[in-house]
């Protein structure tokens, strides 16, 4: 965690000292990564920094910088150009390419960076649409998603650089094949957890007492496929940090974004998330339960608590 902060500081300092353009994109998914690659296609000597949405809103370091380009993230304070499609992120940059009805930020980034006519750039943006709308049909989109999820911070920056330089050929690179393989393993583990939780109730709420290092967003998708209409996953992430993944089936009455935004996060109606601080799992539940009870219109919440590999049902 600490090391990444220092690395971000280094990237920012280097860009500013060398007078290079600097971009901030979402660290979490292919849409952000592709947007970063598009920025590097336009400005090959530009510097890309990755951050999560909460950092863009709260990190003192991130907010102290004037960003030339921001994509798939809320406003980090000062920005020249921004491409985004999140309903929960109000416009803020000097020039906005903001459209909540766009299927991916990368599509808006394509226009913002004037890369519409570039075939390799358009292809990358189309993969971001596949992954961001949870409608992955091509092998390339599947591999891109796996590479992003399997890579660490520097690995993602490497992926961005290679996508910008070589387009989809980047997916054949040996180091990137390694990221894809790593993610494949965590997916397998996630599928086992989903199987153990199936058939899920209509409102599937899963509380992890420790980070099992599985693909939690994928878990919500699997639970929805298995019959859940609403999914909510709570996971500890590092010191006193908790991450929430919320999902809602498109045909259902649920709104994932409204729950996530009440926990300090945001996202889309069908997939949203939040990160917050709490002192232990008890404190985290104290934050989460009142919101769930109100949004689900219920006095008690039936959850599955996953603790050291054991699962038990619990009324909270
Ligand atoms: Mn997006």
Automatic annotation (TrEMBL):
Classification via Gene3D superfamilies: 3.10.310.30
Domain DHHA1: 218-295
GO molecular function terms noted in the UniProt entry: nucleic acid binding
Membrane-traversing stretches: none
SUPFAM superfamilies linked to this entry: DHH phosphoesterases
Entry protein name: Fis family transcriptional regulator
Organism: Infirmifilum lucidum
């Amino acid at each position: 965690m600490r090391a990444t902060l220092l690395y971000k500081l280094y990237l920012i300092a280097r860009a500013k000292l060398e007078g290079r353009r600097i971009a901030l994109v979402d660290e979490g998914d292919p849409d952000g990564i592709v947007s970063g690659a598009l920025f590097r296609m336009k400005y090959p000597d530009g510097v890309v920094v990755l951050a999560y949405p909460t950092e863009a809103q709260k990190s003192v370091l991130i907010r102290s910088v004037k960003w030339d380009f921001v994509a798939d993230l809320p406003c980090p304070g000062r920005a020249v150009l921004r491409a985004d499609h999140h309903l929960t992120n109000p416009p803020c940059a000097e020039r906005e390419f903001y459209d909540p009805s766009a299927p991916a930020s990368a599509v808006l980034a394509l226009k913002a960076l004037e890369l519409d006519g570039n075939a390799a750039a358009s292809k990358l943006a189309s993969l971001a649409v596949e992954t961001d709308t949870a409608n992955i049909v091509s092998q390339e989109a599947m591999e891109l998603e796996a590479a992003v999820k399997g890579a660490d911070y520097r690995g993602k920056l490497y992926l961005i650089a290679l996508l910008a330089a070589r387009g989809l050929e980047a997916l054949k690179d040996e180091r990137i094949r390694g990221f894809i393989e790593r993610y494949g393993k965590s997916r397998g583990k996630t599928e086992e957890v989903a199987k153990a939780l199936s058939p899920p109730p209509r409102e599937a709420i899963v509380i992890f007492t420790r980070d099992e290092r599985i693909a939690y967003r994928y878990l919500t998708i699997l639970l929805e496929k298995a019959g859940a209409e609403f999914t909510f996953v709570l996971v500890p992430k590092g010191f006193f940090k908790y991450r929430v993944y919320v999902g809602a089936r498109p045909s259902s009455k649920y709104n994932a974004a409204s729950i996530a935004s009440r926990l300090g996060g945001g996202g889309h109606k069908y997939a949203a998330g939040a990160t917050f601080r709490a002192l232990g799992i008890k404190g985290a539940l104290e934050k989460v339960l009142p919101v769930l009870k109100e949004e689900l219109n219920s006095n008690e919440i039936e959850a599955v608590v996953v603790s050291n590999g054991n699962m038990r049902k619990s009324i909270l």
